[in-house]
Design brief:
about 190 residues, 9 helices, mainly alpha
């Protein structure tokens, strides 16, 4: 039986999966693979690695699908698995996060910097600038901005103190602002 993704709920798809109907798996993959891939790619910044991780994510999700308690949260569950797999990939690549003292991150112009960062820049430019950041900083920025993960949870996932996450994020904001400002200035003079 061929199933279309338009008017079928995740709960119904999961019931199909439970009854052995492969169409349920296919539609769930179609529905959530792009978002999961984007989350992975933002963290690992390598298309081939992200594709490999995506496959691992869905193998794990589909093999553990019966353990999902809330059938309405399948998308969030898959996204969480994707983020965890991407972070594990980074750990395996020996990406280390150094602890930074809280007192070294304070800047008297932080409020001013926040206001300047709120200027509207095109998303593509912002993502390009973020992609150029060192991997540790880029990971924290992507988890915080694009995955909406609280800084305390990021600290727990990366096994570093919350102050270090805040410091890395603070540094990233400054670096992003500098690069975007420089890019704007360069565009004005060309």
């Amino acid at each position: 039986m061929k199933i279309t993704a338009v008017n079928i709920s995740d709960k119904e798809l999961l019931e199909l999966c439970g009854s052995g109907n492969n169409s349920g798996y296919s539609v769930l993959y179609q529905r959530y693979s792009k978002a999961a891939f984007n989350s992975i790619f933002r963290l690992v910044n390598d298309r081939e690695e992200a594709e490999d991780i995506l496959q691992e994510v869905f193998v794990k999700a589909f093999s553990e699908i019966k353990s999902l308690k809330n059938t309405d949260s399948f998308g969030g569950w898959v996204k969480r698995i994707a983020i965890n797999h991407a972070l594990n990939f980074l750990r395996k690549k020996k990406i280390y996060f150094a602890e930074i003292e809280d007192d070294k991150m304070l800047d008297t112009k932080d409020d001013e910097l926040e206001e300047k960062l709120d200027l509207e820049f095109r998303i593509e430019e912002l993502q390009n600038v973020i992609a150029e950041l060192p991997l540790q900083i880029k990971t924290i920025v992507n988890l915080f901005l694009f995955e909406n993960m609280p800084q305390e949870e990021i600290a727990k996932e990366l096994n570093i103190p919350p102050g270090t996450v805040r410091s890395y994020y603070h540094r990233a904001k400054k670096k992003i602002f500098e690069k975007l400002t420089q890019k704007c200035q360069n565009e004005r003079f060309t």
